């Protein structure tokens, strides 16, 4: 079967993906069956993995061989341009039948007032969810009662550490949050290295606030609340736990645990501190591993997700990140949508996911995949926590809350003149303002009251 490989965005925008006129459907209808094998159809597939173009083309070749009545035209768009390209394609009625986009950023594509850019995947979710290493990953693409994205491969940032230095100093990988904090203290007391280099300019320091906030929510039962699951659990009057989280991270910052002036450092700058052996640990993505190890040939590098307090250490860890996901166009014929679902199902199958693990060194979503490289196997073990207890928000966020990370960072750096409590209140107020903004949420939504009393827990780790 012939395929079109369009790499340049200009070529992409000049292409026309023809929608076959037979069997028209309304937006949002999910096909309930496979395409009739006697029906020939051509669909388009846009992905953002130019570095894996050959592998993806081989996978599509195999799909076409198994389904000779389906032709797939491939196009490639850079990851940092794909949202604008998809938006333009939707407006010009050339939205690809299947496309990749971030599961955790689907909200703007399906909540806009001018139309829904992805079809529902509720039936497919029920069919294949058991094969996923992190079932909660689907919740990142769950919006207003529908699943709109199938997680395909994980993307996220772990704590990389120099195992060679750790062995020399007698430090060990932490398995609990208490051990993690003690490790930070020990590295700081040693005086030789920055404990954890972080790109504060790109909000990496806030990962620690996110992590501890998640752990509090697990311990006090908030993660089981209906309001939590849709991202609008009503804030409690008593915010002392949240205040303790913010104050702990600010205390670390004041002691230069992340390096001097870390709030103005980029991710690249933080990694350079690590590769130059000025830092014992750093936040980084698995995609950075090759570059890091190429510079640090004499050092052994390992990584871990931020561990939870001892009471729940076996339940959850925190990884900042999400998933490259797969979605399909609902503005297509029934035959095209049926073929699109078949392609998505194929791409997350055991066979294809194993191929991706073997040939691309990606951390993929299928729990049955085997990683033959021990380093990537160790990374995959930590990456399984990407999306743990994820929420599927049922409203749009906008300008009011767009600056919340900056507000958080300003508090951490001590430049905002706000207390922790005032910072938390301002962030909550901004979220609520978006929820109530009828220009982006029609009708507006409100906080969801807590249904059950909060559970008590040992707060020693917050002190």
From TrEMBL:
Signal peptide: 1-20
Region Disordered, residue ranges: 443-463
Pfam families reported in the protein's UniProt record: SBP_bac_8
Keywords: Signal, Transport
Basic and acidic residues compositional bias, start-end: 453-463
Family stated for the protein in its record: Belongs to the bacterial solute-binding protein 1 family.
Protein name: ABC transporter substrate-binding protein
Species per Swiss-Prot/TrEMBL record: Candidatus Borkfalkia excrementigallinarum
């Amino acid at each position: 079967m012939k395929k079109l490989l369009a790499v340049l965005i200009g070529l992409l925008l000049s292409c026309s993906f023809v929608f076959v006129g037979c069997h028209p459907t309304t937006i949002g209808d999910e096909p309930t069956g496979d395409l009739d094998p006697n029906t020939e159809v051509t669909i388009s597939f846009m992905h953002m993995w130019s570095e894996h173009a050959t592998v993806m083309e081989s996978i599509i070749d195999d799909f076409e061989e198994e389904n000779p009545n389906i032709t797939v035209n491939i196009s490639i768009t850079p990851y940092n341009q794909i949202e604008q390209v998809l938006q333009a394609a939707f407006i010009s009625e050339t939205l690809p039948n299947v496309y990749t986009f971030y599961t955790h950023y689907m909200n703007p594509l399906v909540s806009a007032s001018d139309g829904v850019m992805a079809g529902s995947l509720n039936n497919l979710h029920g069919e294949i969810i058991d094969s996923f290493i992190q079932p909660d990953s689907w919740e990142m693409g769950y919006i207003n009662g529908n699943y709109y994205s199938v997680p395909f491969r994980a993307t996220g940032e772990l704590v990389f550490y120099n195992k060679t230095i750790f062995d020399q100093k007698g430090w060990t990988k932490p398995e609990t949050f208490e051990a993690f904090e003690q490790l930070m203290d020990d590295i700081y007391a040693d005086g030789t290295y920055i404990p954890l280099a972080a790109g504060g300019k790109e909000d990496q320091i806030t990962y620690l606030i996110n992590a501890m906030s998640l752990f509090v929510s697990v311990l006090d039962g908030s993660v089981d609340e209906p309001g939590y699951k849709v991202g609008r659990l009503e804030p409690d009057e008593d915010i002392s736990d949240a205040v303790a989280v913010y104050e702990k991270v600010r205390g670390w910052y004041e002691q230069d645990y992340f390096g001097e002036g870390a709030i103005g450092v980029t991710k690249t700058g933080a990694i350079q501190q690590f590769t130059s052996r000025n830092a014992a640990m750093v936040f980084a993505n698995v995609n950075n591993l090759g570059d890091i190890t190429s510079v640090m040939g004499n050092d052994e590098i390992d990584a871990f997700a931020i561990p939870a307090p001892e009471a729940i250490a076996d339940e959850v860890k925190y990884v900042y990140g999400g998933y490259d996901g797969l979605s399909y166009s609902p503005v297509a014929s029934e035959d095209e949508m049926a073929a699109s679902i078949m392609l998505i199902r194929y791409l997350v199958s055991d066979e294809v996911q194993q191929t991706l693990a073997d040939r691309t060194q990606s951390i993929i979503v299928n729990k049955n995949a085997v990683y033959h490289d021990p380093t990537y196997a160790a990374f995959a073990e930590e990456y399984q926590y990407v999306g743990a207890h994820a929420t599927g928000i049922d409203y749009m966020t906008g300008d009011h809350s767009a600056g919340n990370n900056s507000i958080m960072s300003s508090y951490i750096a001590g430049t905002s003149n706000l207390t922790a409590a005032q910072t938390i209140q301002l962030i909550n107020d901004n979220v609520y303002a978006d929820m109530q903004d009828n220009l982006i949420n029609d009708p507006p939504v409100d906080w969801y009251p807590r249904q059950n009393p909060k559970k008590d827990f040992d707060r020693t780790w917050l002190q």
